[in-house]
């Protein structure tokens, strides 16, 4: 997207008093058919991902991929270096000594799995993100300390922002606001 | 549904009523106010000690390892003792953050951040010793398998010393990733509190633009669980491999199959002692007594009783096998340990590691920070002597009596060891100034409100389903725990 064509994206943000109120409201809003919502809280909400209807995370598959890469790489380079390229005779032991390859294979598998899921999470969650529309709201800063917030993107629904605001207020939101920011 | 992360039947983990905002304030306070006079005194002391260490290492590297007390018979002594000592201390951090997480021990939340930082600093101290022991540390990169012009002479992958290189470097990297990963939400909290300026910019970058979104938390919890699942075997493997440095040799006293579990238990034993030493000081100096409560300290002393028991059993088993195997060399080594010229070191070790932890059976001792503090120091002295005894007494009476020898550390060796404490405390003191030393997000999930008594931070609005727990105790307790690894597969919600 070129810099000239700035697409404005507006989100309705609602703060709730308690985590339970947030989870409840999220579920009801989803049942009304709203898409692409997200909740924000200072710690993981119990039942938050269920209320949003999030599918199971793909992270475990990334982990499996990392582990397999580590195992194959470690076995390959140890065998190549000590068995094929420069066989070292250490006290007449076999140059292909698989049991001795195990510790390093294990370590490399763990290392690559951890890197895989760490960077995998950043990739899936699009972090680091220098900009997000929610940062436009000063009140939203409480999401990282004590606030429980719900965001409803207006782009994916035909309902007017004011109607969304009313619906959220009737679900118990203590503070409702609309933020407009640039779309990615 | 209720957002409960802890059972109402349990003693609260945060001993005073706090709202979420207050918790954030309190934990961030030490990094936002000016350092106290006490901090400056401690920091000055640590830096001076560190300078001593730097001086000693500089002298040693520029002169050669002849300045150490090593000789032809005793090629490993103070340096390797210190290496194993520091690596061992590092283990408690990962144990608290990973193993206790998998076992759903919620009390870990207020100590895991500091313990993980301690792990990183301890591993840094440990890594110094093998590198300077090389004598020519500028060639340290030779331990890595890189293409070279010596025909590509590769490293020997059958050597436990090389396994150590991979184990320690992986351990350090994973510990750092685990620690940083846990920090991200808290970095965002700090970012949102800071008004502006350089500090804001730094925390903006460090927090990766974290918004606290459920979509991210959802993956975050999976990643955290997986990292914990990875760090658990890793922490066991690291000290196992360290023990292989000894166990795969043919030296009587080293060549034993019980070394891996024995070393791991010893590492946890000494690591928890070090965590206690640090936490007891930290909670008083920073006023965190209601977050790092007596209950936390008490739980750690219980871990010490168990691991101390395993270590004692290992000492007994070694002695028994020395006799039962009928191997005269083995038997001699052990008799020499207990009654030879280094008997004083052996009995120091036994007193500190076998006898002293049993004082923790008394509730009075377990709940007295002063008593725990003294005992934690005693245990660390004992664990240092354990490594010294294993290394030096096994070597100093060689197979040939003509090569028998004695070892005494020189000033340079002692100075280097003291210097690593300087490094350790310098880093730890800086850490208490620049980062939240208690995991803010995790403590919130176990704070008093989570017991369902009232809504967090909004006492005026009653929580949804805010019946008092006593009226409906059946609704209150946590769902039955799923086995951690099964949870990893089916992705059950695992609150931190």
TrEMBL record, chain A:
The chain crosses the membrane at residues 61-80, 100-124. Coiled coil: none annotated. Keywords: Membrane, Transmembrane, Transmembrane helix. It holds the Pfam family ActD. It comes from the Bacteria. This is Iron ABC transporter. The lineage of its organism: Bacteria, Pseudomonadati, Myxococcota, Myxococcia, Myxococcales.
UniProtKB/TrEMBL annotation, chain B:
It is a multi-pass membrane protein. Pfam families: NrfD (PF03916). Residues 454-478 are annotated as: Disordered. Keywords: Cell membrane, Membrane, Transmembrane, Transmembrane helix. The keyword Transmembrane helix applies. It is found in: Cell membrane. GO terms for cellular component: plasma membrane. Residues 454-466 have a biased composition (Low complexity). The chain crosses the membrane at residues 39-59, 83-103, 115-135, 161-183, 223-242, 262-282, 303-324, 344-362, 369-390, 410-431. Its main location: membrane. Belongs to the NrfD family. PANTHER family: POLYSULPHIDE REDUCTASE NRFD (PTHR43044:SF2), PTHR43044. This is Hydrogenase. It comes from Archangium violaceum Cb vi76.
